[in-house]
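Help!! Second protein's tokens look totally different from the first
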Amino acid sequence: MMFGLFRRVARAEEGGLRVVIELAAFDSGGLEKVVLDTALEWRRLGIEVLIVSVGGLGELAAVARQAGLRVERLPERRPLATYARLLDRFAPTLAVSHFSTAGYALFTTRRLPIVSFIHNVYAFFSPEQRARFAADDAHVARYISVSPKATLYAVERLGIAPARIATVPNGLDTGDYARRAAAARPPPRASLGIADDDYVFLNVAAYNLHKGHYVMAAAMRLLLAAGRRDIRIVCAGKPVYPPHLDELRAHLKQHGLEQHMLLAGYTPRIEDLFALADAFLLPSFIEGWSIAMNEAMAFGRPMILTDTGGASEVIEDGDLGVLLDNEYGPVTALDGERLNALAYTPQDYRLATALAASMRRFADDRAAWAAAGARGPAKLRARYDLQAVASRHAAVLRDVVERAR
């Protein structure tokens, strides 16, 4: 143990960082995409990385390994014993957690400072999760939050001192996305039952009903009632809780929406659906900083977003689309009970009227909104390029190590 500690101190004094990154699972979600992209950029900056997944491995874990990153999954039997051996062999100088705390006791025993990412507005916490978060906070040296709203919620509702949080937005590898856009192969619209002159909104989000799927359905009902059959929504994502997806499908069928709000499932080639679509739609109740929002910028699509997460940082004075007031007011007013009531029970949403009106505006003035979307790639490169974002992360990590010496 002491020899491992000596190696960590020596490496820190040499200026190098060795970071163990923990996450609950490593498959295909937005959080996992952040882990993959930042780990690759940290390596470019000279930071050695070990990624430890407490749960399953999937698509993005395979991509990470193909890129030469070390990825380990903990076994179901005696996971902490395996984790301890991994830490002793890797000898990290710092631990980074992404909404996972399995290794906190091991990190603390080894005197590893912990940097915890705040990936969302944590309004969905149950009382038990809030208590656990408060207890875990004693182990955390610093937080990195992905948006001002996520930071505000952590300060006002979870009691974290502002000075302990660095706010750094999620970024994208803009060069990679430019290549993906150039190589996109949109499916024929007819294969989805969409006419060539229909106006198509793409929603990219897991079928987690916190993303506002029932709001979209309510807005589509209003549009159909007004005779607008030329507007479609394509929803792409994986189910989080299959019974909720079953209930959503039944709701769409009950109201005759299944051909107007299409549940297309998951595709790793999301560029193909962005090439198909005219605009991007994300009327979420909560977000941290949506990677799909960044992707919409990269692919040059105008956006309709609710004012949560990083949306108000991205859409400014209507430059890239429309920013809608959310359903509940200030983000600090939201809690798990209110969130679940809004997300899981279809109702008369005030937001639906504003959303339907904005969708109609996009469809009626296609050229103007296409021009707005075309501003997205330049804004993404200027503000949210992954290299610059990762450099900001690295500065926080190095500062934490310096302070821990």
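Here's the second one for comparison:
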Amino acid sequence: MSTEDATPSPAPHERQSRPRATGPNTQRTLSGEDAHGTTSFETVPDLRVLGQLHDTYIVAEADDGLVLVDQHAADERINYERLREQFDGETTTQALAEPVEVALTAEEAELFGTYEDALARLGFLADRVDDRTVEVRTVPSVVAESADPAVLREVLAEMVTGEDAAERTVEAIADELLADMACYPSITGNTSLTDGSVVDLLGALDDCENPWACPHGRPVLVHIDSDEVEARFERDYPGHSGRRE
């Protein structure tokens, strides 16, 4: 190729920069989808859902930091308060299509005789078939869909467990039963949720009297504030002030 045919390269100062991308300033997730907007709540912080961690924890941005929500604990709290509201009214029972016989230990059989009336108040109507077997005819309506009739054995155990068993009221035992029953229909960990179901779950949690803990006392939300995030990344080191963020 001759010298005349050669096209000289532009000098560095003459090179044009690459054109900047243009378009709407839409915030997107790492997968390229539009990011969620912030949802306002009455009790829990206003949150912008970012996604799920291990299909178990909802990850959301708050005004001051990061919020992780245990989806099982959240749904458990929601179900517990729903069950408790139903139970606070007149106790209703649901008859079983076929009575279910439950075999008891000798101790459980003795307890059944002592607490038969209390069990009836809870909604468990049962008759003794023989010394060690009872036939359960009804269960509390609030747990009918999620509890096996054999849960009656667990209720008997609750009535006599612990040092304060003698002082515990039927209502206290019922409350513990409802807490256990709330677990059965609740969303489990390792469950992928749709965008809409996450927002619905958070909205129902916000309506709860106590959205901060599940009925067994475990935390529902963990808030990692901005100061802690910055401290973990050591953004407060000397001389950082005034530098590019």
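Reply: Different proteins will give different token patterns, so don't panic. The beta strands are 48-53, 57-62, 65-70, 93-103, 125-130, 133-140, 221-224.
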